[in-house]
């Protein structure tokens, strides 16, 4: 497969799967499994992550502005946006700590297609359990620091390829009683510091590796992932209360079975 076309395909995959609860690592297997494609390198990985980061920041720009103002301008005043900002910080800490301690293990890439498929199936089942038992209707402003910590700890499972970062965060938010739309919003907001952390780790790796720079691949990957990530967030939040989680859970089960049979 041509590298330019591959950049476009991988950008679409990253943009779609970063925020849908369907496991980006499982989908990123497809180009190499089906076409025997090569890794486009560290710079490309950074570009597609940066694209999804720009997309989510732009989508939630008003909320981010309110949280920033509450922290730096209205720090001494009681404010729900300030509480939400602190909860996002608390929810981010567990995966930062876990990523630091398990970085070498993650880099060894001990997970193969089969283990990714099994993880995908297992966490699809956990998401199903959380969705069907969710009877509460708490909104984004009802999250406590303890709830945020629980979501953050649960999100650490996303370090397992096949688990899905957004999937684990949404699952945990449903388990503590958030309604589906606000569970998704919190998971998407939580992706901002998480993706930033991933970008920092990838940037550190640039210092220790000799990496080829292909500007065209980087540009295509960045803009493709950014556009598709933004459209994914917008559409997902618009329809999620109507369609629920069952279509995504069903898709994950079919995907897991398909990867096992390949």
Architecture overview:
This protein has 262 residues and is mostly helical. The chain has one domain. It has 13 helices and no strands. It has helices spanning 3-17, 24-27, 30-35, 42-59, 61-72, 80-101, 103-107, 113-133, 145-155, 165-175, 180-206, 215-243, 246-261.
Structural category is mainly alpha
Beta-strand percentage range: under 5%
| Total of helices | 13
- How many structural domains can be distinguished in the coordinates? 1
The overall pLDDT average reads: 86
> How many distinct beta strands?
0
Which descriptors apply to this entry?
262 residues, single chain, mainly alpha, 13 helices, globular
Explain the layout of strands and helices.
Layout: H1 3-17, H2 24-27, H3 30-35, H4 42-59, H5 61-72, H6 80-101, H7 103-107, H8 113-133, H9 145-155, H10 165-175, H11 180-206, H12 215-243, H13 246-261
Helix pairs in contact: 1-4, 1-12, 4-11, 4-12, 5-6, 6-9, 6-11, 8-10, 8-13, 9-10, 10-11, 11-12
């Amino acid at each position: 497969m041509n590298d330019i076309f591959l950049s476009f395909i991988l950008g679409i995959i990253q943009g779609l799967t970063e925020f849908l609860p369907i496991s980006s690592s499982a989908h990123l297997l497809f180009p190499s499994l089906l076409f025997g494609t090569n890794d486009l390198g560290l710079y490309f990985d950074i570009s597609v992550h940066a694209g999804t980061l720009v997309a989510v920041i732009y989508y939630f720009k008003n909320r981010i502005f309110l949280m920033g103002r509450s922290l730096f301008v209205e720090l001494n005043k009681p404010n729900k946006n300030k509480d939400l900002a602190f909860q996002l910080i608390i929810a981010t800490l567990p995966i930062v700590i876990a990523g630091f301690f398990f970085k070498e293990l993650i880099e060894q890439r001990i997970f193969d297609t089969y283990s990714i498929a099994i993880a995908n199936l297992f966490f699809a089942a956990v998401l199903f359990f959380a969705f069907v038992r969710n009877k509460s209707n708490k909104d984004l402003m009802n999250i406590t620091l303890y709830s945020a910590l629980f979501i953050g700890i649960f999100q650490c499972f996303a370090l397992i390829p096949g688990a899905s970062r957004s999937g684990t965060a949404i699952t945990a938010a449903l388990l503590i009683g958030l309604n589906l739309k606000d569970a998704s919003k919190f998971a998407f907001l939580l992706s901002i510091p998480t993706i930033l952390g991933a970008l920092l780790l990838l940037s550190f790796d640039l210092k220790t590796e000799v990496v080829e720079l292909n500007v065209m691949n980087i540009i295509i990957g960045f803009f493709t992932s950014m556009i598709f990530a933004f459209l994914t967030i917008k559409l997902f939040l618009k329809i999620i209360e109507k369609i629920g989680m069952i279509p995504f859970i069903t898709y994950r089960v079919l995907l897991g079975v398909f990867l096992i049979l390949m």
